[in-house]
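Budget justification note: compute hours in this period were largely spent on complex prediction jobs such as the one shown. Inputs:
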Amino acid sequence: MSSSVEAITVLSSDGDEFKITVSAAKLSKPLNWMLEDVCFSDDCDEVPTIEVNSKTLVKVIEYCEKHAPRANSGASDSDAEELKKWDIEFMKMDVKDILFHILMAANYLHMEGLYDLACQTAADLMKGMTVSQIRKIFHIKNDFSSEEQEQLRRQHPGCSFD
Amino acid sequence: METMEIPQEIVNDIFSQLPAKSILRFKSCSKTIYRLTKDNNFVIKHAQNLTLQGGDTSFFIQGHEIKIYPLHGNTASKSSSSAIIPRSFLRFLNRKLEEILLSSNGLLLCRFVQKRGLLDNDEFIICNPTTKSFTSIAATDSLLWNKPQAFLSMDFDQKQNRYELVLLEYNRHQGLDTVKCKTYLSEEGVWTKREKGLHIGYSWMILCPYFKGKYHYLLSYNFENGETRRVLFPKEVTKTLAELDYDDLCTFRWDKVGTSGNEIYLGILDRRGHIFTFWVLKDYRSSSWLMFSTLSFQDIGLEEVSIYGFTVMNGHSLVFAT
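Corresponding output:
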């Protein structure tokens, strides 16, 4: 393994090229394997593809680069505190429309921290929603029969199907 | 927002980050979501997430909010209590827990599934979350296969650090009157068949057979002579019996009010009337009951809330899950 390589190039599923530092890529096991398998062999001119679209990959890489120093060296409590604040800001940005893409990417790339963060963000967004809004965003079909709905209503007054 | 479709496991993970109240609100989304609230793995994961976040209103057995109200008279002086469960214990449970069968004074009886070769082996373990101690107890056939036809009760004496399990088995086909009794004492470590003259903490207990989706009558079992006897429900509640769910009824002992400590008490939840009623059995030969306490949802500050089962803890606190 060559230690002179500091950043590698990957392709998104849209075919765009992205640079990611080696230390940041270490946050993801599959990426790490890719590094070892493909990029450090001497005659490497193959660019690995990551099955994540460009818009999402930008965010995932941004997260990796921010978290890499701490993950690789360990950090003080004040750093952890700062990182937590950064996470909140990171998720506040225009993430909402690609949140599920980030979630899927984090799952695919085995990035536990980002996955949990995305789940928590999604849950926070869901709290204020109605049942029909939840059905819509998760593509859930209401499969209760009208009798079952009636039974649920009787058992749990205040239960809403809309 | 236009969203992509995501796999069910990920949906479950997102839901496990929601507060219990939201999960209950969303359970009418679909049957899959509804089942989540009854799934042990989900409930434990949910409790773990809440523990990590420092949420303190959830209890891992139910995963919903637990509220405790003292039951004396009608005065509902509010006292809520929360259980903090050691994280390492949750991790242990998470590994292979199937079901929590009973709890008494903080002691839990759990069913675990162990994979041995191709076979799943059920294992019954008594655990004490506080001391993090575990003891495996031998399974009996009725525990393994005939759960609806067996009643199990557990009594844990914290001071003496001993427990006893009483298992009552009946065969539905031979009629409800053939009840067999087995006990398991912590110092003996084996199940023993008891014919009569059993000296345990109480002289008789009442069973609530529930079959074909209905309560029909109660069954009392006398530990001294091994007799069983049918006991009728209080007249006032017979009309509502057909509407009772399995979780809407519980029996308990009320050590503080009764003089002998052997009296039988019955708690009934009337969902339509939004009220809990509590009864004491005056005479079991004539099935005469006395209502000694009621607690309406309003008394305890509940409005438009679903109740998921309840029980009476240590004879003086109403515990219910919303």
